[in-house]
Specification:
By secondary structure, the chain is α+β, with helices and mostly antiparallel strands. The chain contains 28 helices and 23 strands. It is globular. 50% of the residues are buried. Helix 3 runs antiparallel to helix 4, helix 12 runs antiparallel to helix 13 and helix 22 crosses helix 25. The strands form five sheets. Strands 13-14-17-22-19-20 form a six-stranded antiparallel sheet, with no helix packed on it.
Amino acid sequence: MCAAAIVAVAAWLSFASFALTADGQGRAALVPIDLWHLALALIVGVFAGAAAWRPGRARGVLVAISPLALVLLPWIPFRVPPAFLIWTGPMLGLVWMGCALGVMAVTRRDILTVNATPPSRQCLRAGVVSFVLFALAAWFASPSLPGGDEPHYLVITQSLLYDHDLKIENNHRRGDYHAYFAGDLNPDYVQRGRNGEIYSIHAPGVPALVLPAFAVAGYHGVVVFLLLAAAAASALAWWLAWRLTDSAAAAWFGWAAVALSAPFLVETFTVYPDGPGAGVVLTGVWALMRADWERRTRSERWMPWFLHGAALALLPWMHTRFAVIAATLGGLVLLRLSRTPNPLAKAIAFLAVPAASALSWLFFFVIVYGMPDPSAPYGRQAQNSFSYLSNGIGGLFFDQGFGLLVTAPVLTVALVGFTRLRRFALEYAVVGIPYLLAVATFAMWWAGWSGPARFLVPLVLPLALPAAQAWAETSRRPGMRAVMIAALAVSVWLSAAMVGVGGGRLAYHSRNESGATAAPWAEWASRAVDLPSALPGFVPLPIGTAVEARHAAARAGMFAAIPWIAGAALIVLVMRRSRLREGHLAAAVTWSAAAMIMASATIVWQATGATPLRAAPSQLAALRAISSRPIVVDVRGKKVVSREDYVASMSIAADVSSSHARPGPRGGRPLAILPGVPAGDYRLSIDAQRSDGWLMAGIAQDQFAILTQPLAVLESGVTLRLPVDVPSIVVRVDEQARDAINRVVLHPLRLLDPRDRLTSEPARRAVRYDGSIVYFLDDRAFAEPSGFWVGGARSTSIVVAPDAISSVVRLTVRNAPVSNELDVVSGSWHQTVALAPGETRDLQVPMDASRGAALVQLRSSSGFRPSEQGSRDSRFLGAWVRLN
């Protein structure tokens, strides 16, 4: 009963959202009291009580759940170290995972015990489970995809399918990519081919590989094909790990270490070469192991080696950098073949396809660019330099957003396995080091808009073998196994957050405007403290940055990484000889990890002079939580306050950093960003040294401003009415004002009750037109300064907010030069307008004047492409809309 009560109360308190006051001295906790949260806390408590009910388990369960005391650290009613506030919000998920594993260890002696199912069936099961997990991840992350270079690979597929060539200019002109991509897409090339045509800078291997799937089911067919390929590769990783260790439990651990790691997981369904390339590289490792098997069995078959060679021959066609892997891995296979029966025939079979493929690959560049040079598509651009090496290596392994070991700490377990697999470790180094040098010296080592450590993903799947070996070798060291499970749990938590939060926005990102590398997952994990400033960040500097600046960035990143590496090493040293029981081990590891996180964060904050408390983001998170009508507790004052009084007392101040205060017009770098602002009325004001210049406020990173005012007006504040939630309010200034502003302050005046909102969808962008602001809820409309286009054969939703109270919204609609029908819906009002080519029509859409805004849905039944009439605009447009 005690365990049940502790867990239930801890669960309820874990739902609290903590907000700091503007000066950082006070704390408010918003605790939900709705039926859903209370019922969930009660259910979790019942499970804990049931686990402890059997005689002899109660003490073990109480020890296992003891880390839940971390939940209470932010509730201490006096000033506490900033590190205590780490344990608010999503970061508590790590504590709960540790406690859950501890309870499982108490109730079940070995949580990775597997039954006596035949290995072949378990291998199949690994593939099925992989496919299900990868498909779920793809579904959650689908709002962010396809993105980055994915559409460029798909355009090559369309060129091969429709035109039977690789010339992509006509595909871009026709807008073929609009079948899967809503925005505008220019050809991605550096120099034209020898015939004057545009060829993509991206290799044609992956587009050709997915062409049958695209021909059958378009982009979604490609995703399914990639999921099947990744699931098959994961099953192969399980099977190879089992053949190596002869242990199903070790194979499952090795499989989980790679298949559930964020770097590999987020590439299993993206149209990049790295995910499929990882599977091909694993077949090369399979070939190395096959050589040992055939030496023992005396097999003389050559056909498997022909297939291994054909697989490795695909790598250079997928990406030029994969040629390094193909060459080194192929050479290692030939060395092992020399010790097998019938080595000459096997070597000839193995080299047959790669030799022909290599000649064809070089001849491809001769045909297209006139020279047998794989770097020809890049022209004379300087892409690689050893001046990038220190920053690139540090970033690829330890950067908080792009680092392999930070986003998948379980992969460090492979280092333990390598100590037992010395020959394999040497061979892995022979393949990995030249490839690492090739990608770490690349100017854009973070791979642009992509998932973490994308360039290292091709080398991830073989790590299942040493990870499995490490598990098998530690059967008599429960402390080490507890650390391995903890590393796996943290990796799974990171993977789930990246694909499950915000439609994949935590997984796929790039260098932000200020040049910093604050990882989206780290910003999401804690609103009360600046967790990104406590983690190592290797700034992905622009190509032209001086060498010394790059080295300085690398030193700063490694300096921040040292406390985390030392803390993790200390935990391993302490736990490797521990003889505690399973439940006690889990609690010890969780407590040790929590202490390491708090200590490392504090050391980095103190050493770098960072300000760890984040008042503005925590207050905005509290505003979003207000809608659930929680209890508001003043922690320092030890009292409950009303929600209305709390909102009225809030002053959300975004300090202006000199690194962000860059000159420029509306499209320049932002002065301040206020993320996640809920619908309501606000007063926007500034603290300025002088009143020269102008300030512009817009939604997200859009180039349009919904507020443009001189600084003199902003000093007393202006009212900003938001009828819908917005992802962020971005403040920019002109040249005169860039050094004048100290702070941007947002005062909540009134929050819209969820029942009074027009929609729960947030705005993607907003544009001010004459007397009104239009909030666009999707990407199916194309905003321009004087109006907007409804996409052809598409529906779009907007919210129109007039400055003056009105009972109607007046629209002027001009049709595309084709016959069309436009459906317009606002609440219960609906009108279908038949439009002749180029016809203009005035519409009056009714609105609820009491709400001051209207939700309008528009659907165009047809459309046209301006590119078909000689323009460079390839968008598929339906009807032009202007507000009157």
